[in-house]
Amino acid sequence: MSAEPDTQSRSIACLAIPSLAFQCELVERPGLAGTPVALSDEARSRIVDMTRAARLYGIRAGMSLRDAANLCPTLSILEPRPVLVAQYAEALVEAMVAVSPLVEEAGPGTVFADLRGTEGLYPRIEDVRQAVYAGIPPRLSPQLGVAGARFTSYLAALRSAPAGVAHVPAEAAAAFLAVESIAHLPLCVEDIDRLRLLGISTCGEFVALPRHAVEAQFGIEGGIAWLAAQGEDPRPVRPRPWEQERVIEVAQTDPPLVSRESILHALEQMLGRALRQPRARNRFVRLIRLRAETERGSLWEREQVLREPLGGRDRLWTVLRTLVEYAEFPGPFALITLELGGLTEESGRQYSLFVEQVRRREQLDEMVRHLKVRFGESPLARVVEVEPWHRLPERRRALLEYDP
Question: Are the C-beta atoms of residues 86 and 80 closer than 8 Å to each other?
């Protein structure tokens, strides 16, 4: 691994914290350092992760809480807090945004950044490391990997030291990946199990297979995984859409909101404030995102991508209300965040010469879209000809869901 990479070998960086939920809890409880600690699942039935001190007692992932407590009576069992995890996950994204505007959050604790064009700002890998880690608590044990391809940078991050960086040049990628487990490949669990049944356990054994044979068995995903396993992952960094064009309203509720009516009332006020922000004036919205935190740290999220940009408070409120009216909440809401994203200046459409017919059809389509958002499926159906020559009448036509 070289200290001064060329431009092609450092195009993608990956910031990884393999067990973000566990690390968040350890950061919030520094007094537990060096003691046997385990993290349970949200149902508080099984062990998900544990510290090294807990492993010495024989505690393993998947073990029930009762069995773990029997093995280690002094074991501290922590319950995950989704709100805390979301806050730290956003901090990781912001840390990568400080280095590059092209950032993708592949999952909580895994963030990719496209480094192309940043060579002048960060000529050395050490410069990248310092810039990324500047806003991250060291106790989170972040790991950073830099390589020429997405998959290689991810494996490099997993192999780097905590608060360190691992760089894999392009010419060394194939050898670096050859000894890695196929469990990391971008394939579904069933495909990984099939490969193991064939006696394939490492990326080196996987790329030894002919690419056409892999694609014949596993499809396009298999071909992508085959390229990734030899350091030529074709998947780019996909930045979060509409990152800059958005407005956000946050409401801290005290006491927490319990009833659905009070939540709807708060959201209606938040929508009005959001639309009065200068960035949102005379703009149309493509995305509505809701996030609420309960007083016990649970997280509730909803997102609606609009099929066409909507403007006006009434039309947006219709969509926003449907996200809440029939939802189940994990508890009283202590904090509510409303985001209107994908702001655009689109103000109209090109209409047909047959204005009246078009207007009626659009009214019907609009009604069906709202009903589909509310009930989850279209309440209307249309008749289509399937086999008009068939002797049985019921085989000549079929009812299909009307989806405008």
Answer: no
- What share of the chain has pLDDT > 90, as a percent? 34
- Cα 262 to Cα 265: distance, rounded to the nearest angstrom: 5
Q: Is the pLDDT of residue 205 over 50?
A: yes
CATH 1.10.150 in the chain: give the residue spans. 179-229
Mean pLDDT, all residues of the chain: 85
Contacts of 96 (CB under 8 A, 6+ apart): 13, 15, 103, 111, 112, 113, 132
Phi, psi of 340, rounded to the nearest 5 degrees: -110, 115
User: For residue 24, which of 93, 94, 81, 97 has the smallest C-alpha distance?
Assistant: 81
Location of each CATH 3.30.1490.100 domain in the chain: 246-341
Residue pLDDT, tens place only, 81-107:
887 888 888 889 888 988 998 999 988
Q: Which CATH architecture has domain 179-229?
A: Orthogonal Bundle (1.10)
CA angle 161-29-82, nearest 5°?
Answer: 85
The answer to whether 334 and 295 have CB atoms below 8 angstroms apart is yes
How does pLDDT run across 49-58, given as a tens digit for each residue?
Answer: 888 888 899 9
- Give the architecture-level CATH label for domain 21-82: 3-Layer(aba) Sandwich (3.40)
Cα atoms found within 13 Å of the Cα of residue 212, Cβ hemisphere only: 0
The one-letter amino acid at 352: S
Cβ atoms of residues 253 and 333 within 8 Å: yes
CA proximity to 54, closest of 42, 41, 67: 67
Query: Which SS3 state, helix, strand or coil, does residue 143 take?
Result: strand
What CATH code is assigned to 246-341?
3.30.1490.100
Cα 170 to Cα 167: distance, rounded to the nearest angstrom: 10
242-299 residue pLDDT tens? 455 788 898 888 888 888 888 988 899 999 899 888 888 888 888 899 999 888 878 8
Q: Is 58 exposed, middle or buried (0-12, 13-18, 19+ CB in 10 A)?
A: exposed
Is the pTM higher than 0.85?
A: no
199: left (phi over 0), alpha (psi -120 to 50) or beta: left
Structure tokens at 91: 């901090």
